[in-house]
Design brief:
With 740 residues, the protein is of the alpha+beta class. It has 13 helices and 38 strands. Helix content is 22%, strand content 27%. The termini are far apart.
Length: 740
């Protein structure tokens, strides 16, 4: 039985080297001794088995994965540092360790035989999922979902010929869950059971399966043994598993008919769900329930995975959806990172609490502050390097900052050389080289082959296969037309031309859109709702109404985020009907003035500025006085409205408040207003990169002549919030129209 990580390096496809995230047995023994005295729990005990498989045999029938072993460490660090698990009570099985026999034996020995009735038990699996024929036909399709161990190859001759596989079926998982002697049992499965292979730049965690595959004789015999141990008849077994899961809670990373993505994030891979799930829990100020966790994690998982992946929660008949996640309370404050090792003045940190969209700014120049149990600062770390979620840095202040200390963001360092990475799809064919050379002429646009590093968008042709897969979407481009896809091959609206267009002409047509998408990427690197110390609250309501559609606020800027009157998170709504008028109320709850800008990014990637909206005024037009509120638009004063309208897709509203005047950004916007003859109202910005550069100079205090490679942004100077929503048959757009 393994009690620790094997030290190994994981490689991305295309030869790019992943961060070495493994730990040796000796590392775990040292860490267990260090943390054990602090975190060990007498009652209840907290036990976990974490399984992650990347290295499936490369037999050509289904691919290996990249992010599953990283998922194990994401979950490990969360359980130890946020939920007080003793490292010696966490067993991990990765890659070649994760055979069917090892998984089942370890589950029995470590979880079932050691747990007591009030203990907390967690089982996590990241790897391929599949389906096999179910003789009891619990579902209409007659298939039973499975977990694929490392030693479960497909039968020779598949798919022409069927046969048995060595998978662990859902039936077996039900029996194992039934045998766990505590109701405080959580099963987390980051795998899927439909599709397979690859989607765009994403690997899919699903091995081929279906009615042609059967449970192995070993699997059926194992189930028979457990039926005897549990004194359960075959008929009772069928009845119970059709009623509900066996114990506690089960979290699936995707619905039964959806993909679960193995996603490139910055310089490493992880499961889209596991990354978002663990990062969300790192950031919570209080205990959060299963229900709230899955609801809030779901939307971000969909955005990160690009495949409409929606997590699902199942609860046993005697459990509650409102129970705290993992059936246990957190033991530490929210944080972006934790100190994992200190040698002299050199520090190693784990950045598990950093938003995936912000990870790039936690490199050289970023500063993290240590916090004690009372929330008081006790030392600072300046990062000098980062690989994946592992950072290295030096101590700026060393007052009582031992290994295991939590770290909160103080300063992020936004690189001045940020690029927009465009993947080149295989559908470009002979035009790939021309596309690469043409894209390279656009400043800060970086063309890349698919299958390696994370890309932000994909350039490709609309193929017949694309049209078939996206058939439920309205307004599909013509077959053969060139345009942009998301990393998971979803459409970027209004980016397609006619089928006869050359690749060079298409890229020239897309040049303004690419610049706008780059600007949106830059501004999103400033988003800091969890870490900003400014006290800002934003609410979205129907026009002239009081129903809260969504809100955003600075968690650490609120004086008492756990008080009874603290705002309740409403990160967004799934849909808003076409033609709905909406307003935003921005509350400056600081005792000082703030300078405000509000931007809208529509489904096409186009950017508009809706505040400020008086283009003959000075920087005072951006000032929001201390304690004041802004209604946007103010229907008694402003001469425009915000009304949902086409194009179809997701809309994001970015609200940025700075303690520094926004002089540079405002000057850039006024030039655009002058050029377009606009004196008031929303301002559409076709190429906003210069404006965004000016904004970053404003909030960092840098001048245009500075040659620094990093722009420092402090949590005491900036609050950048986001509200994201979809619209039925349309989205908010404000293209410099008086009544949009």
């Amino acid at each position: 039985m393994s009690r620790g990580f094997s030290r190994r390096h994981f490689l991305q496809t295309a030869g790019a080297t992943l961060a070495a995230l493994g730990w040796s047995q000796w590392d775990v023994m040292q860490r267990s001794d260090r943390y054990g005295r602090l975190l060990a729990q007498s009652t209840p005990r907290k036990l976990a088995l974490l399984v992650g498989i990347n290295a499936y045999p490369e037999d050509g029938l289904f691919p290996p994965l990249n992010g599953c072993v990283n998922d194990v460490e994401l979950q490990y660090q969360l359980l130890v540092h946020r939920y007080g698990f003793n490292p010696s009570d966490i067993v991990t099985l990765t890659d070649e360790q994760a055979t069917r026999e090892n998984i089942l034996t370890t589950f029995d020995e470590h979880l079932i035989k050691q747990a007591q009735p009030d203990d907390v038990v967690v089982f996590h699996f990241s790897g391929h999922g599949a389906r096999v024929a179910d003789p009891d036909k619990d579902f209409e399709d007659g298939l039973n979902s499975t977990l694929v161990p490392v030693n479960s190859p497909l039968p020779a001759g598949f798919p022409r010929e069927g046969g048995a596989v060595n998978d662990i079926t859902g039936h077996t998982l039900f029996l194992l869950g039934s045998a766990v002697p505590t109701d405080n049992f959580t099963m987390v499965l980051d795998s899927c059971h439909s599709g397979g292979a690859k989607r765009g730049n994403l690997a899919i965690r699903a091995r081929p399966g279906g009615n042609g595959l059967a449970m192995s004789t070993a699997e059926l015999a194992y189930q028979t043994q457990w039926l005897s141990r549990l004194n359960l008849s075959p008929d009772d077994f069928v009845e119970k598993r059709r009623a509900a899961i066996a114990k506690g809670a089960a979290i699936a990373s995707a619905r039964r008919n959806q993909y679960a993505d193995d996603t490139p994030i910055a310089e490493f891979y992880a499961g889209a769900f596991t990354f978002v799930h663990t990062q969300y829990l790192w950031q919570q100020t209080g205990n959060t329930s299963f229900d709230n966790t899955i609801a809030n994690v779901g939307r971000t998982t969909t955005e990160l995975s690009f495949s409409n992946q929606i997590p699902e929660l199942s609860i046993a008949l005697d459990s509650e959806r409102t129970a705290p996640i993992y059936f246990t309370s957190k033991v530490s404050d929210p944080a972006e990172a934790v100190v994992t090792n200190i040698t002299g003045g050199e520090v190693e940190v784990w950045l598990g609490g950093v938003d995936p969209n912000s990870l790039e700014v936690f490199g050289p120049g970023a500063v993290l502050s240590g916090v004690d149990e009372a929330g008081q600062s006790r030392g600072q770390v300046q990062l000098t390097d980062r690989q994946g979620l592992r950072g290295r840095g030096r101590l700026l202040e060393a007052a009582g900052l031992p290994s295991g200390s939590l770290l909160q963001e103080q300063v992020r360092g936004i690189p001045t050389d940020v690029t927009l990475r465009i993947g080149l799809d295989d559908s470009l064919g002979a035009d790939t080289e021309s596309a690469q050379s043409t894209l390279a002429t656009i400043p800060k646009i970086e063309p890349l082959a698919l299958g390696g590093d994370e890309v932000h968008y994909v350039l490709g042709r609309m193929t017949a296969a694309n049209r078939q897969e996206l058939a439920d979407q309205p307004g599909l481009p013509a077959e053969g037309s060139l345009g942009l896809f998301s990393q998971g091959l979803d459409l970027v609206p209004d980016s397609y031309g006619n089928p006869e267009e050359t690749v060079t002409a298409a890229i020239e047509r897309l040049r303004p859109k690419l610049r706008s998408l780059l600007a949106a990427r830059l501004i999103k690197l400033t988003l800091n709702p969890g870490s900003s110390r400014l006290n800002l609250n934003v609410t979205m309501i129907p026009e002239a109404g009081n129903q809260v559609l969504a809100n955003a606020f600075t968690v650490r800027g609120t004086a008492s985020p756990q008080a009874d009157n603290a705002p309740t998170p409403r990160p967004g709504v799934d849909q808003i009907p076409l033609g709905t008028g909406i307003q935003f109320q921005v509350d400056n709850q600081e005792n000082r003035d703030l300078y405000l800008s509000v931007l809208v990014i529509d489904a096409t990637g186009g950017m508009s500025v809706i505040f400020p909206n008086q283009w003959t005024a000075t920087v005072e037009s951006t000032r929001l006085p201390a304690g004041a509120s802004l209604m946007l638009p103010d229907l008694s004063r402003d001469r425009f409205r915000l009304v949902t309208q086409p194009p179809v897709g997701t809309t994001e509203v970015l609200i940025v408040a700075s303690s520094n005047p926004l002089n540079n950004a405002l000057q850039g916007l006024q030039v655009i207003a002058d050029d377009t003859g606009v004196s008031w109202g929303p301002l559409g910005v076709d190429d906003p990169t210069a404006v965004v550069d000016g904004f970053l100079q404003d909030v960092s205090g840098m001048r245009g002549s500075d040659t620094s490679t990093v722009q420092p942004v402090s949590v005491t100077q900036l609050a950048a919030l986001s509200i994201t929503f979809d619209v039925v048959d349309g989205a908010v757009s404000c293209r410099n129209v008086p009544r949009c």
